[in-house]
Specification:
This protein is an all-alpha fold and 141 residues long. Helix content is 65%, strand content 0%. The longest helix is centred in the C-terminal third of the chain and has 17 residues.
Length: 141
């Protein structure tokens, strides 16, 4: 697979609740041209949004793939967290908060998570995950 579009089509055909999901993702990434790896975060974030309350094998191969290209995806992550949060994008932020950040960066990420908790339109499963992350992160402060 040598285009981002082909990757997106193949990814969107996968069921994140399938028993073979992790193996399917592994096979998908193995058959994808490494030259486009750095740009796969966009269709992966779309997939996270489409399956907002699923762990999509999380953290798993998709999260680890995205994290390989830190910080390239941060603007997309911030946008998705604000516009179409998912359990997996919240997990990514929690993982970022577990790293060495400036006080300003930490405050920004915590603010984005806090906004999700106060948004009644966000799925309860997502809010519950985010609340757990916030409790954990505040214990670290």
């Amino acid at each position: 697979m040598n285009t981002i579009e082909a990757f997106a089509i193949a990814l969107n055909q996968l069921d994140p609740e399938s028993y073979s999901f992790v193996l399917d993702i592994d096979q998908l990434l193995e058959t994808t041209d490494p030259r486009i790896y750095q740009d796969l975060y966009r269709p992966i974030f779309d997939y996270f949004a489409q399956h907002a309350t699923s762990s999509v094998g999380g953290p798993g191969l998709l999260v680890h793939h995205i994290e390989t290209y830190y910080p390239n995806y941060l603007d997309t992550l911030k946008h998705d967290l604000a516009q179409r949060p998912s359990c997996t994008t919240a997990l990514l932020v929690n993982r970022i908060l577990n790293t060495e950040l400036s006080a300003q960066e930490r405050s920004e990420w915590l603010g984005l998570l806090s906004a999700i908790c106060s948004d009644p339109l966000v799925e309860p499963e997502i809010r519950a995950d985010v609340e757990d992350y916030l409790v954990y992160q505040r214990q670290k402060d």
